[in-house]
Amino acid sequence: MSAPSLLRMSTPLRADFEIPYHDVGDPSRPPRLALVAGLHGNEVNGVFVLARLASFLHRIAESRTPGLELRDRILVVPAVNVLGVNTGDRRWPFDDTDINRMFPGYSGGETTQRIAAAVMNLTSQAYYRVDIHASNVDFEELPQVRLYAATAAERASAILFGLPAVVERPLNAIVSSTLAHAWRACEGENFVIQAGIAGMLQPQHCERLFRSLVSFLHRTGIVSGTHLSEDEDVHYFGTDQSFPLISETAGLFVSRLEVGRWVRGGDVIGQIFDGFEGELRAEVHAPLSGLLSGLRRRPTIYEGDLIARIQSPQSVPAVADTFLPGQGQ
Amino acid sequence: MQKSRDVILSLALPYREKLEIRRTVFDGERGGPKVAVVAGIHGDELEGLFLCHRLAAELQALVANDPSSLRGRVEIYPALNPFGVDTIQRSVPVFDADLNRMFPGHPGGLPPQRIADAVMRELSGAELVIDVHASNIFLREIPQVRINKQFEETLLPLAHAMNVDLVWVHGAVTVLEATIAHSLNARGVRCLVVEMGVGMRVTPELSDQMVAGILHVWQQLGVLDGRLPLERPARVPFVAGDHNVQYLNAERSGLFVPSVQHWIGVHRDQLLGVIVSPHQGDVLSEVRSPVDGVLFTLREYPIVYEGSLMARIMEADVPSEAVA
What we know:
Shape of chain A: globular
Mean pLDDT of chain A: 93
CATH topology of the largest domain in chain B: Aminopeptidase
CATH superfamily of the largest domain in chain A: Zn peptidases
Largest sheet of chain B: 13 strands, mixed
Distance between the termini of chain A: 33 Å
Shape of chain B: globular
Low-confidence stretches of chain A: none
Helix content of chain B: 10-25%
Radius of gyration of chain B: 21 Å
Strand content of chain B: 25-35%
CATH architecture of the largest domain in chain A: 3-Layer(aba) Sandwich
CATH class of the largest domain in chain A: Alpha Beta
Number of helices of chain A: 6
Number of domains of chain A: 2
CATH superfamily of the largest domain in chain B: Zn peptidases
Order of helices and strands of chain B: EEEHEHHEEHEHEHEEEEEEEEE
Largest interface: A-B, 44 and 43 residues
Number of strands of chain B: 17
Strand content of chain A: 25-35%
CATH topology of the largest domain in chain A: Aminopeptidase
CATH architecture of the largest domain in chain B: 3-Layer(aba) Sandwich
Oligomer: heterodimer
Distance between the termini of chain B: 48 Å
Structural class of chain A: alpha+beta
Number of helices of chain B: 6
Order of helices and strands of chain A: EEEEHEEHHEEHEHEHEEEEEEEEEE
Number of domains of chain B: 2
Mean pLDDT of chain B: 95
């Protein structure tokens, strides 16, 4: 079975390249949901989960899963940055541009603007739209829903994924050229999901992400039948409840924590050692209590580096966070 | 006159070294205004580094000849992304961040934001900042000044005096609000963006041309003594806008081979180059000028994908003798 493509393009030397997608369900109906991953080629968790989900959806559509029924049409794009997946690059490898800084795109423009326009053209038809990311190679994110200048409907629907955290983030100049921002011009609801770290495939995060997408399909009635997954505790955090922990000490960062645990103010997050002399330079403590939603994984730390992100049940003092460039998205 | 070098920001690196932003200051100490040149905000753009060297050489020669010729203060920042220059990376290494999308920065943010913040603080109070870029590795640009339409009124007269052939007044784009030029201009510090040459190369004659323009502007501003017999800029720029710039994007992927020189007048329908395939003898695409005008951007890197920019032409009446 050949998959449809949202873009086909000649290449300088290789065969033509295309960006294939899955179109599952009744083709005469407008799609209710569009799922996109791999705008960044090295964010493999989302690519893997969407490929697995597409396989699952095809099985439902072919009535090979007794008790389950697909009631709506779904579009699934496991990877937009096809070349980047194959080379392990975040950006479009040829000209090193970030496809997720090219939206809404332009069909007569640069290569990545054309890719962006084609992605918009396909996905804007859907009512629900989800863009899945995996931070970057330095930082691991607990699977979470991110909302940017959310509508009431988006706030309500974000819970349906059943992921442990829904985090509202401010709009800034960086995110204004992303896919999720471009979607805002179209009617419907838009979500960004962050899950894990770039450059790796993390089975636990992937399983959680898969379950969350199935929950969403179930709770929105897109798939009906047996309830497939159990709920997690969902916590909702506003834009003023996110605390970025920034190190003023350089060195080698060591942490034994895992993302997703709750920390109390004063708990040890990790240590920073001098990479030459081996001396302990700083012990990093949680400045407040909350959910450890993100943790530094690249061990070499600069003065001024992001070490962790803690989501607090309370409002936290205004810090540099609103000025931080959009990690991972 | 005092010449000094100092470090405006020092950040510790994980293993022993430091990331330092260095500058050289020529201070005439005669009460004249402060001006600055910044370059190397993208680590793969090197034309501006050579321009900084040429300007330093001119200033040294001027004050050696007559110490009173420097009335104001000139600050030269050859590389705002020194780590990128040292490691041949456009972005700030490790952070993978385009430094020119980090302004105005923040003192408590990530390292690229701290660099931006430190630079903004040092440049406050300047009469004029010149931010020198060298395109990227793909495209070659004729020396030109780029101005955001929002600041046209204050910047255009200065741009006219810069000894360039082209001034491009472009419309506002949201993401570009995070550039150094926009951040400075928004705070009332005039900043001109100079684009010239191509990434990863130095083209000395472009710096020669810009030195003449910059010294002239500095003299107009009173940084250099008015009695200095400087050469007057010979070039009168075309003024391009969003309405009269044509973009030529590749229709096919392949090898783009230009058949014209850069920096010339071209006629409508004139053949500018072809796209060919290394696999076959046919021409995949002929690239022709859609208008009469000035070819101010020409692709340097031959491989193109569909959509790759090959040329930009400003629509203009060009005298026939200027056409190749």
